[in-house]
Structures are given as structure tokens and as C-alpha cells.
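Quiz preparation item.
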């Protein structure tokens, strides 16, 4: 059964509503990168905006519908928090973001620069999220949860609307899977308007809870995660988002850390784009499954580009 939480009508509405700074991002065939994999490779670049990630789409759509004066509390590994901070700041809404004590310092600084109050609690994103939920209870603030609050998926779905305008038939989309907002939004619109396109979820093998849950149709959680892809390092899936994946996602791939680093380097070399690990997992999936995608037209979304100076040096410096 098609999950009906995500509405294609609201994705269309989101496209008319979202701050244009996040919309109409570059999408093109990257010939030299595609030649490495013997396919036609479409890159969709979501890093060229004030927060360097696709999360601005969902956050801005959510804020357009939110109560004007009610404070908001959310949790983030960094990119969603920046997106919320940007959209809240623009509208004068008070925001508190809970992030892990190990969160990317660049992402933390950006959240603060956009005016968010940032509280560091817990060893990872899911621990920080539990702290945020707890803090919101009885505070009068609204707790916003990425991928549970459906506007986050519908905002991300506008990426799908743009990809549908691509002049060639797209055989496969390789989409990073964190809590599911992006794949559920894009997948929903493609299943309705381009059903032949295969929607493939990609996760880091060091944080496989969502894919394991999807494959077994049960809620699989982990006590720890171990991946450089902090933006998709989920160990406690959102059950509603798993449900949204039913009938929308066709396949799933787990990729290892070395492939992720190699993918970031290839994107940098062939596209001149700095991708964070989460944004490179689609290319990592091509590295590990080259035969599966030969001769196809494959699209992937470089969905974030927030890396620290130290990460820049260690991942991109010693080519």
C-alpha cells in the first residue's frame, strides 16, 4: 500500500512556498565521473546555499506553516539545525537545537551564527534527540522532529520535482538515507510521476538501522553508530518514516567508510564540489556496485557540504 503521509499536492505547494535560495539547484550529466562507472551520471548539487545542504527546503516549508510566536526545540547532527536556525531567524522565531557533544564543530558554529541557542547533550544524534524531546515537554515550546514532521519530507520532495524536469529518462536514483525525509519526499513524487525510476536508499554500513528495519519490516535499533557520515548516522529509526518508505523505496545499499572517502575525493576532482560524507554515499554505492549500474542513467544528490578545516585536510588534502 502506498504510504499516504507524504502528499504530492503539498510537495507542489512547498515548491511555490520555499525560499528561492534553496530551489532550482544545478543538475547535470557529469561526463568524466560517469565514464568511470560506464553510465550516464546526473549530479544534483544541494550545497550551494546559505546552509550548504538540502535541509533548507524542508525547514523553510515547515516554518511557513508554523505558529508565528511559539518557540521551537529540535535536535540535529548539524544540517537540519542550521536549516531551522536560518528559517527561524528569518521569521523571528526562537529556536533551541540539541546536538551531540561530538557534533561537527563547524555545523555548531553555523547554527549559532544563525541565532540558534545550541545545547550539547548526549553521545550521538539520537541521544541528543531524546534530550530535546524531554526539554520540550512542559516547556510550551514545539518539538520539531526531522522526517516525523511531514513538511520536512514534502520540502525535500521538491528536489524530486526538479529532477522530473531533467530532459532524459532517469533509470535509477541513489539517495542518501538518514531519517528518511529526503528519500520519502523524492520517492513519493517519482513513484507517482516517473514510476519506472528505481529509488535506491544508501546508508553507511556503520549506521545501518534504517535499512535493516526496512528490509526486515521491523524496528531495528543499535546501541552505537560508527561512521564518518554524521548526517545519516541514525541508530533509532523514526517508525513513521519507515512506514513512508513502504512502496516508495525499491532497493537499499550499505557502503563502507573507504568507499565514502574515495567518493568524496572523486566528486571533488570531477565536479569541483566539496561534499560531506553523507552527500557522497550515492557515488560510494557506484564504486562498490559498478556492474549493477553500467549503461544506466543514474542520478544522485550531493545533499550536503559541511566539512571542518581538519576534515578538508584529511579527506581532500593528500590526493
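Solution:
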Amino acid at each position: 500500500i502506498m504510504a499516504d503521509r507524504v502528499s504530492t499536492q503539498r510537495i507542489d505547494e512547498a515548491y511555490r512556498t520555499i525560499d528561492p535560495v534553496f530551489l532550482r539547484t544545478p543538475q547535470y550529466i557529469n561526463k568524466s565521473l560517469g565514464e568511470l562507472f560506464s553510465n550516464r551520471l546526473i549530479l544534483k548539487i544541494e550545497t550551494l546555499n546559505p546552509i550548504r545542504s538540502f535541509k533548507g527546503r524542508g525547514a523553510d516549508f515547515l516554518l511557513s506553516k508554523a505558529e508565528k510566536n511559539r518557540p521551537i526545540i529540535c535536535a540535529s547532527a548539524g544540517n537540519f539545525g542550521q536549516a531551522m536556525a536560518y528559517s527561524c531567524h528569518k521569521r523571528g522565531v526562537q529556536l533551541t537545537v540539541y546536538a551531540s557533544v561530538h557534533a561537527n564543530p563547524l555545523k555548531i558554529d553555523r547554527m549559532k551564527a544563525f541565532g540558534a541557542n545550541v545545547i550539547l547533550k548526549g553521545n550521538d544524534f539520537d541521544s541528543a534527540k531524546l534530550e530535546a524531546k524531554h526539554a520540550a515537554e512542559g516547556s510550551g515550546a514545539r518539538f520539531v522532529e526531522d522526517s516525523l514532521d511531514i513538511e520536512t519530507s514534502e520540502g525535500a520532495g521538491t528536489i524530486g520535482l526538479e529532477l522530473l524536469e531533467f530532459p532524459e529518462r532517469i533509470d535509477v536514483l541513489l539517495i542518501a538515507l538518514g531519517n528518511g525525509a529526503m528519500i520519502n519526499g523524492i520517492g513519493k513524487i517519482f513513484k507517482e510521476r516517473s514510476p519506472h525510476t528505481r529509488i535506491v536508499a544508501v546508508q553507511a554500513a556503520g549506521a545501518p538501522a534504517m535499512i535493516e528495519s526496512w528490509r526486515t519490516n521491523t524496528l531495528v535499533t543499535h546501541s552505537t553508530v560508527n561512521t564518518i557520515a554524521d548526517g545519516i548516522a541514525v541508530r533509532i529509526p523514526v517508525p513513521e518514516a519507515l512506514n513512508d518508505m513502504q512502496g516508495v523505496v525499491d532497493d537499499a545499499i550499505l557502503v563502507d567508510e573507504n568507499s565514502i572517502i574515495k567518493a568524496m575525493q572523486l566528486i571533488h576532482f570531477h565536479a569541483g564540489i566539496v561534499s560531506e560524507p553523507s552527500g557522497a554515499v550515492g557515488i560510494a554505492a557506484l564504486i562498490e556496485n559498478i556492474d549493477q549500474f553500467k549503461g544506466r542513467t543514474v542520478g544522485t544528490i550531493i545533499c550536503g557540504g559541511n566539512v571542518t578545516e581538519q576534515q578538508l585536510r584529511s579527506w581532500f588534502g593528500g590526493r
